[in-house]
Amino acid sequence: xxxxxxxxxxxxxxxxxxxxxxxxxxxxxxxxxxxxxxxxxxxxxxxxxxxxxxxxxxxxxxxxxxxxxxxxxxxxxxxxxxxxxxxxxxxxxxxxxxxxxxxxxxxxxxxxxxxxxxxxxxxxxxxxxxxxxxxxxxxxxxxxxxxxxxxxxxxxxxxxxxxxxxxxxxxxxxxxxxxxxxxxxxxxxxxxxxxxxxxxxxxxxxxxxxxxxxxxxxxxxxxxxxxxxxxxxxxxxxxxxxxxxxxxxxxxxxxxxxxxxxxxxxxxxxxxxxxxxxxxxxxxxxxxxxxxxxxxxxxxxxxxxxxxxxxxxxxxxx
Length: 318
Hints:
- A two-stranded antiparallel sheet has the order 1-2.
- It contains twelve helices and two strands.
- It is mainly alpha-helical.
């Protein structure tokens, strides 16, 4: 049980080991375990840190183990979303391995995603109505984000979205698809610590800001590595191009030309947006509603630590 750690990396490392053990103890389906294998567990780690910040590390072992069980439901929901994402995006790989729908077939992948969701809900329900409602509400946001992204890409290709709508839609999708689960993981940690009210809202906002920064950083890494994602780049080009320009449907060659011309502006824009959300998260971590402890200090360090580990891949630091 990770208590009294000197630094954030040590806390995350020991917490990661505990989550992995709890997944093995809780999940019996081998294919489900295979899907979960290799994840960073960021949402679960933030859930644990939120829990510890509420208990100040004074919970007993049974309370800690119950919280750990709750993190498994978070990983199951996230894992299910990835299985479904790979089908929608027609991706052949996930975490360096063959995507589940390629290996097992589309029908099995769809059903396995549903099976993971029901298992996650079973765990959440056993932790009380508030946790169960949080689980359902979170998944609703994720699904709405997926639907919005599908429709966004369809309308984008037809040139139906205005400049303002393009960018707003992009941010809304990030918020629903990614930030929602980060927010819910932190809120779950608070509920597992038997707390609510203002502190629950604070941690929800804290997780959402980290989630927004995380997805923006992930998109930036992909762009720098040469993955030109139309659903990402079109709204950003519309955001930074002159007000008179209007970018609608473009062939990939044209899109790449315009991107290369604006590359420095786009990367600068990303860094500014990421920094804004990190600063918001750090500010929330200092809220008076969060009790003082060593874990409150770790809350302030976590946002930059998580994002800079991602950006290290492209030699960027914020």
